[in-house]
Design goal:
The protein has helices at about 45-55, 120-135, 185-195, 240-260, 285-290, 295-310, 315-340, 340-345, 355-365, 370-385, 390-420, 445-450, 485-490, 535, 560-565, 575-580, 650-655, 660-670, 675-685, and strands at about 30, 40, 75, 80-85, 90-95, 100-105, 110, 160, 165-170, 175-180, 205-210, 220-230, 265-275, 350-355, 435-440, 470-475, 500, 550-555, 555, 635-640. By secondary structure, the chain is of the alpha/beta class. It comes from Aptenodytes patagonicus (King penguin).
Amino acid sequence: AALPERRRPGGGRPRYEVVRELGAEEVRWFYREDRKTWKPFIGYDSLRIELAYRALGPGGPAEPREGEAAAVEPVCVRSGLYEVDVASAESYPVYWNQTEKIPVMRGQWFIDGTWQPLEEEESNLIEQEHLNRFKGQQLQESFDMEVSKPVDGKEAIHSLKLSRNHVDWHSVDEVYLYSDATTSKIARTVTQKLGFSKASSSGTRLHRGYVEEATLEDKPPQTSHIVFVVHGIGQKMDQGRIIKNTAMMRDTARKIEEKYFSNLATHVEFLPVEWRSKLTLDGDTVDSITPDKVRGLRDMLNSSAMDIMYYTSPLYRDELVKGLQQELNRLYTLFCSRNPEFEEKGGKVSIVSHSLGCVITYDIMTGWNPVRLYEQLLQKEEEELEDRWMSYEEQRLLEELYITKQRLREIEERLHGLKASTVSKPPVLKFKVENFFCMGSPLAVFLALRGIRPGNSGSQDHILPRTICNRLLNIFHPTDPVAYRLEPLILKHYSNISPVQIHWYNTANPLPYEHMKPSFLNPTKEPTSVTDSESVSTVPSPTTSPVMVRRHYGESITNIGKASILGAASIGKGLGGMLFSRFGRSSTTTPQTLETGKDGAEGDDKKATTVGTPPFPHSSSGFLEPTVELEHRIDFELREGLVESRYWSAVTSHTAYWSSLDIALFLLTFMYKHDQEDTDKANLDTI
């Protein structure tokens, strides 16, 4: 088959007319992760590694001159996430720890077709032989080689014997590798890559210098937004998992960036926050009290369920909070020190948390502490005491207690005042959070159990002030057993409005999320008017009631049996009848559309026209309809495709967020929002 053309900045002219040593731009460096194939570094990285390699001196890394090896600084690669130590030919991550080192190698000779590098030792020998024999000789006119002619009849003008194979030069730039013994490692890798049969004695064509010249222009875009990825429960079981999960999310996001956001000169970086493994907690006390027989199953249970128990234990809660808080601040400080222009250019920070990680992140941002609950409880007890009849003695003691407490508070405040004037308390986090994405999050249950109840304003401030975090988004799969909805905690009637459906990543021209109109969940029975207060009060709690059987809302198709058993994205049924009775008495089976002037996130008044839906009438019963809408939608649900629904089981749905292209597009849509708007505005201005 025809070769890929040698691409190079100067067009198709030969780089060098005569054979000479390879230029730094012709060499290509590679890295290998998880013992897979060698991957080429981008030009910018490869060129800088090669220059560092050459700075080591003529011996290269094998025999660095005294005192000089230390002088070569590690080379920052792969968008600044890794460094390469040229002397040891290894790469390692900058922001997290990894036990497995990532080997790097220098490619000079390459296999035809795959452009995989030949192993370094072989490559060095071939290169040395090539220069000894052909240095200074004229090359063919053009590098854009036509389909290579068979060389069976051609005599080899030069040959080199390697341990288990040999290389024949049929001309200066027709070089073939022949296997002498099919057991040889190099022949094995070559035959596997190219699909030759073991018996085949035909050679493999080799190329000197990489298919593409390395240039410093081939560099990654500047990072304008960093995302901290926070793991949930059970990281004790597998410390490296959050690193793998973040890598999956990063790779998926890269694909989406290339497809949809390639016009933007900026880039979103994902950093794993591995906060659990540094904590000692109880040492191994829990391990020591686990019966032997069930250890395998218990290990799994302990490392996930136990984290929730640790978090509700006053003894260890602070340690978990501090662990995550310190790791977030450490990563941010390290990132800014390595990217000084990030803060200057107004770089933004978002957090993606999974499972229990959402609760801990929320508590760090808001500064919530169980002590608050305790104080509320004491206050309540005091109020109850004052309400009942007391003897003179009791009253006197109570007054004394009250005055003493008052005095104690004053002294504490004065002490704090003195402290504050000398030491100002640093903020809990060193950065403002732009978006807080919760995935598969039990946060709503925790908040409900802390006494948060729906209010009557549609503001996110009710659960998370905008001054702390600009936007809260709660993502879940319909069958995730650990996920709960947040919206009904702000406005109760949202328990009967379906979560926003997340677009499939390949949807053409999807409607922007802020323009999507709220749609009702299906009523399960003939709607009836609700008049007595009793039936309103028996509405199940919006956050803890089980999932209603959902047939079609939005375009989600849910496996009914599964959804009814599993407690995901909870919905209160009772309000269904109440809301639907407002639309006349016709029984409806399609999702209705709730319309008010303030539409979605941006609140466009232009869209206040109602299409095909009667407005809320005032009911004769005097019950005023809830017309308050959320300023921004918070609950977003993955659509279940017909094909994938059978694969998403209760178990996998809690962890399958990491590689979802739909989620990657969703995250980037919100993070690139302002950049995209600025670009669109600039384009309009030019028009």
